[in-house]
């Protein structure tokens, strides 16, 4: 098959939901994955790697449901070289408008010997068998040589040639351990493309990890060397130090189009929103000074810089905040705003809620406007995110009273609805948050342990809403819950309950036999 390529078009392959989700603590539930997949589709990514279907029933279901949901992008499922992996990926993708199986196998000496315990000839045989099987199931097959950058060059070329002959149309050469330099990575693509028969009939892809902070630079170098697909993730989340950050890659090619004349299909004005969606979903705060999406990325603090900015923004700004969807925080609505204005505001912010969800969100907005004088865009985002996080929760917050401070022991009286039944309990703790969590544990006993408790003020001022994230771990599986409220302690209780609800869903879905399939 010959691929006719627009020579400068770079395919953006998003792996937030697969490699990104492999970050410790970044597990997402189905609802969250669907929201992110929908946002990625609207954002303009070309391929969404939705999961690793054989690794768990949860991943299988996620790939299946995302395949049904996504309208524009190709949906991709990951598979090792084994037939069971590939068949499971094919099964999960059967509803996709455009489905891709991404099958991979290690090719470096250290991986073949110590991880796979296979000889190079056995690996070569498995490349042919796996790609052939995948092509029996779908048209679009990607093959990756895991640890390509530490693979012996002649052997890498033999594997690529075999994968192309067996029917792969994308060849991915990952820098799995984040070891390559930009020069080496560009050179690898140049040499492979010049040498391997059939290289002109396929698309080459980068996949870079950030162990030395070079993932973005290496990905761009790979494109300069001839690759035309970049595998990357929102906010750069992924195994260990993460993957190449999608937003940095896309903006680098846009702002420095003179030096890197490559185009993508991404609507960059959605960058800020999708970055926030991912970071709040998994409670991974974005570093303040992170390029493109950090809180300070467009802040000018020093007097000299501020003076220059006032005279002409180009003095210190190489891109406009609005290019990446960063708008000045605006005062939105107040106590007297009606449902119509509220709906208009939501829609302008990109939220389309159904009638019931809109009504619930509106009631919560009214309650918030009663407590808080100014309601900002960020408040609306926190409120709607909080509403969506509740979903079909079995455990629901009703009321609580907390004793905090230094006069005596701290305690919490908690009223919860558990499967529709109201239950009340009282507990003491080492501080008010501990007392709240103990009260919840008393009403709904569980073994999960607290891994993270994080509070973030949504806006400025003492009446700001608090957004709390709580991570719980049970049997090696972790989940993150969120809650928002003007009362930090109420937000804490809601976040803990949200995490517990997610654990309940996870317990139902995880198949023990499938878990051993992850590597
Ligand atoms: O880093 C890596 O090599 C991977 C492969 C599965 C593509 O994630
Ligand atoms: Zn990876």
Task: Summarize the topology.
Layout: E1 11-14, H1 30-43, E2 47-51, H2 57-69, E3 74-79, H3 83-92, E4 99-106, H4 109-116, H5 120-137, E5 140-146, H6 153-166, E6 170-175, H7 182-195, E7 203-208, H8 215-224, E8 229-232, H9 246-255, H10 271-282, H11 303-311, E9 331-333, H12 339-348, H13 355-371, E10 375-376, H14 377-390, E11 395-403, E12 410-418, E13 421-429, H15 432-443, E14 449-457, E15 466-474, E16 477-485, H16 488-509, H17 512-515
Parallel strand pairs: 1-2, 1-8, 2-3, 3-4, 4-5, 5-6, 6-7, 7-8
Antiparallel strand pairs: 9-10, 11-12, 12-13, 14-15, 15-16
Helix pairs in contact: 1-2, 1-10, 2-3, 3-5, 5-6, 7-8, 8-9, 13-14, 15-16
Describe this structure in words.
This protein folds into four domains: 11-282, Alpha-Beta Barrel (TIM Barrel), CATH 3.20.20; 296-326, no CATH class; 328-388; 391-507, Alpha-isopropylmalate synthase LeuA, regulatory domain (Double Stranded RNA Binding Domain, 2-Layer Sandwich). 41% of the residues lie in helices and 20% in strands. It is built from 17 helices and 16 strands. The longest helix has 22 residues, at 488-509. The protein starts with 10 loop residues before the first strand and ends with a helix. 3-methyl-2-oxobutanoic acid binds next to strand 5 and strand 6. Residues 19, 104, 144, 146, 172, 174, 176, 207, 209 line the site of 3-methyl-2-oxobutanoic acid.
In short:
This protein is α/β, with parallel strands linked by helices and 519 residues long. The protein has helices spanning 30-43, 57-69, 83-92, 109-116, 120-137, 153-166, 182-195, 215-224, 246-255, 271-282, 303-311, 339-348, 355-371, 377-390, 432-443, 488-509, 512-515, and strands at residues 11-14, 47-51, 74-79, 99-106, 140-146, 170-175, 203-208, 229-232, 331-333, 375-376, 395-403, 410-418, 421-429, 449-457, 466-474, 477-485.
